[in-house]
Amino acid sequence: MRTGPAFATAALMLTGLTACGGTDDADATLTVFAAASLTEAVTEIGEQFEAEHDGVTVEFNFAASSDLAAQITEGAPADVFASADEANMDKVVDAGAADAPETFALNQLVIAVPAGNPENVTGLADLDGLDFAACAPEVPCGTAAQTAADASGTDLTPVTYEADVKSTLQKLLLGEVDAALVYRTDAIAAADAVDAVEFPESAAAVNTYPITALDEAPETDLADQFTAYVLGEDAQAILETAGFQQP
Amino acid sequence: MPTARTRRRRRIPAALLAPAVLGLAFLILPLAGLLARAPWSELPARLAEPAMLDALRLSLVTATAATALSLLFGVPIAWLLARGDFPGRSLLRALVTVPLVLPPVVGGVALLLVFGRNGIVGSWLHDRFDLTIPFTTTAVVLAMTFVSMPFLIVSVEGALRGADTRFEEAAATLGAGRWTAFTHVTLPMIAPGVLAGAVLCWARALGEFGATITFAGNFPGRTQTMPLAVYLALQTDMEAAIVLSLLLLAVSVIVLASLRDRWTATP
User: Fold this and answer.
1) Which of A17, A61, A67, A246 is most buried per CB count within 10 Å?
2) Which residues span the domain enclosing B108?
3) At what angle do helices B89-96 and B50-83 cross, to 10 degrees?
4) Residues B109/A174, Cβ–Cβ less than 8 Å
5) CA distance B138 to B216
6) Which residues face A180 on adjacent strands?
C-alpha cells in the first residue's frame, strides 16, 4: 500500500524530534507538513526562513494533503500544516488539531500540452477527440477538473483518472497522452517540456491553499512565526514565481 | 535415539517457537488493526456499490489472466534455467528476478517506454495495427504479468532442481520423446511446485498497484482494479478503503486456502 512509506516517514520524524526536542529557540527544529504541489515553493520559503532565524532548522514532509491530514489526526508530531484544499484542512480542524487556518495561495487548472502545442489546443472543447489525462475526482485536482468541465458544459472523458497531479503530468511527459489537466504551478515547473493553455472555465474551480499552526505543535511560537512568514511579502513573491496566485 | 522416536508428539524447540510466534504476531497484527477499525455496519452498503463490484471482477479476471500468461511463459523459462546448459545462465536468472527488486512504479514506466505510444514495440503496434496498449485492460494484465511472473519462475525452477532426473532418463530409455517425457513425467512430478508458484503469482497480481496505475492508468471498469480503488478511496474516506481492503483480503484468502488444501497438501 502507498501509505506505508508515509507512515514510515512520520515514524522517522518522531524519532528525529525526540532526539532534538529542546524548547530553547537557539536550536529548534520546525516540522512542516505540506501538500506535494508546494514542494518547490515551500522548500525555498523554508530556506529563507532558516536564513532569517538563527539556529532554526525547518524539516518538511511533503505528501498528498489527504495523507498528511490522516497522519496529523493520527497524532504525527507536526508544527505546521499547509494543505492543497479546504476539505483536508477541515478534517484536521474537525479533529480538533487546529482552529484558525488562513488562505495563503490560490492555484488554477491549465491544459498542459507538449511544447509547441502540436494539436492546437485553445480551450476545453478542443480536448474532445484527444487522449488526455486528468486527476481522479477523489483528489483535489480532480474535483477542480470536474467543476471546470461542468462550468464549460462539455462532457469530458479522459483516458485515465490519475491518483495525483504529478502522475497526470507524467503521462504527458512520457508522450502517452496529448494533453493533461494540471495546475498552472505544475505546468510552470515543467516549462521546458510543456506549454500551458489557460482556459476561462478554470476560474470556476480555483483551489484554495490554507495553512495553520497546529494546536499540539512541539514548537508553538516558531509555528506561528512560520505561518505569518508564509503570508508575508517575501514568501508570497516566491509563491507567485511558482505560478500560484495571491489570495 | 529410540525414546525420541517413540514419542507421539514431537516437542517444538523453544528456540524455534519463540521467534515463530513473534513473527506471526508481526504478520497478523496489522490485519487485526484493520479489523478493529472496520465500520462493520457500513459493510453491506459498500459491497453493493456497482463500482466496487466492477473493480473486484476486473481484479479477479486480470489476475487470473496474468497467472495464465505466467504459466504459459514462466514454466518454459524455469525449465531453461534449471535444465538448460548455456553460457550466461546465472546472469539470465538474475535478470528474471529484476521485477522483484524494481519498484513497481518504475516497472510501470519501463513498460510505457516499451509498449507505450512512443515505445519501441508500442509505436510499431500503433503504426502497423492501430493498437494502443496503455490505458486498456490488456495493459493491466501485462503490468501484473511483469511483476508476478518471477514468483512463478523461481518456484518452478526450485521444483525442477529438486526433481529426480532419472525418471526422465528412464522415460527416454523406454522410447518417450523429450516433449512426452516433459508432459507425462516431469510436469506431474513438479505439479505441487507449479501450483505453489501459480498461487504466489496470482496473489501478487491481485495486490498489484504501482505498475498498474503507471502503465494502465485508472479508469473505472477498464483499468481500475481493487488496489487502485482502495488507494483512491483512501484519499477521501479511510473507512471505505478499509472495507475494500478487507473484501479483497477475504476473497484471496478463501481462494488460496481452498487451493492449497486441495492441490498442494502433498509436498
Assistant:
1) A67
2) 41-263
3) 170
4) yes
5) 8
6) A112, A133
A133 with A162: CB under 8 angstroms?
yes
Which pLDDT tens digits describe chain B residue by residue (267 residues)? 444 444 556 778 888 999 999 999 999 898 888 888 888 777 787 777 788 889 999 999 999 999 999 999 999 999 999 988 889 998 999 999 899 999 999 999 999 999 998 899 999 998 889 888 999 999 999 999 999 999 999 999 999 998 888 888 888 888 888 888 888 888 888 998 999 899 999 999 999 999 999 999 999 999 999 999 999 888 777 788 888 888 888 888 888 787 766 555 444
Task: Please give the domain boundaries of chain A with CATH numbers for all domains.
Answer: 3-106+208-241 (3.40.190.10), 109-205 (3.40.190.10)
**Record: contact A163-B228, CB cut-off 8 A:** yes
In-domain check, residue B222: yes
Structurally, chain B folds into a number of domains equal to 1
Residue list for the binding site of A for molybdate: 37, 65, 165, 183
CATH number of the domain residue B213 falls in? 1.10.3720.10
Chain A interface includes B113 (CB < 8 A): yes
Grouping H, G, I as helix, E, B as strand and the rest as coil, residue A134 is strand
Q: What angle do CA B178, B181, B184 make, to 5 degrees?
A: 145
Q: Do A163 and B231 touch (CB under 8 A)?
A: yes
- Asked if this assembly's ipTM is beyond 0.90, the reply is no
Which B residues, 130 through 149, put their C-beta within 8 Å of a C-beta on chain A? 134-135
Phi, psi of A110 (to 5 degrees): -130, 170
**B209 close contact with A: CB closer than 8 A:** yes
Could you say which of B116, B220, B231 has the minimum Cβ distance to residue A174? B116
Alpha carbon B79 to chain centroid, angstroms: 19
